[in-house]
């Protein structure tokens, strides 16, 4: 009898905090690069979540944590704001 190996899929989420990218002022280019990097390493990762700076950041983190991924990567803070 052959034993089947269970392959666990590693999951990841990417959150980008950028007020201007979230508003559509410019395209987020960092998030897709991170997603591609993770995918090349075997992670199941959807498109990045792009949120404005401020109160939406903890909400995005909480939503990602509810999905119980193995990895959460965040990036942002690329501009000057008050």
What does this molecule look like?
The protein has 82 residues and is an alpha/beta fold. Helices cover 32% and strands 23% of the residues. It has three helices and four strands. It has helices spanning 19-22, 30-40, 56-66, and strands at residues 10-17, 43-44, 49-51, 71-76. Strands 1, 2, 3 and 4 form a four-stranded parallel sheet that branches. The longest helix is centred in the middle third of the chain and has 11 residues, at 30-40.
Brief characterization of the structure:
The protein has 82 residues and is α/β, with parallel strands linked by helices. It has helices at 19-22, 30-40, 56-66, and strands spanning 10-17, 43-44, 49-51, 71-76.
Relative helix content:
25-40%
What sort of overall outline do the alpha carbons produce when their principal axes are compared? elongated
Mean pLDDT: 89
Uncertain regions spanning at least 5 consecutive residues:
none
Strand count: 4
Distance between the termini: 66 Å
Q: What proportion of the residues form beta strands (DSSP E)?
A: 15-25%
Q: Biggest β-sheet: count, sense, barrel?
A: 4 strands, parallel
Output the number of helix runs. Answer: 3
Order of helices and strands: EHHEEHE
**Rg, nearest Å:** 16 Å
Structural class: alpha/beta
């Amino acid at each position: 009898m052959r034993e089947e190996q269970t392959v666990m899929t590693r999951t990841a989420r990417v959150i980008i905090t950028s007020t201007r990218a979230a508003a559509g002022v410019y395209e987020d280019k960092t998030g897709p690069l991170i997603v591609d990097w993770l995918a090349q390493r075997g992670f199941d990762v959807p498109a990045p979540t792009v949120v404005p700076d401020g109160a939406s950041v903890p909400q995005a983190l909480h939503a990602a944590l509810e999905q119980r991924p193995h990895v959460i990567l965040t990036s942002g803070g690329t501009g000057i704001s008050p």
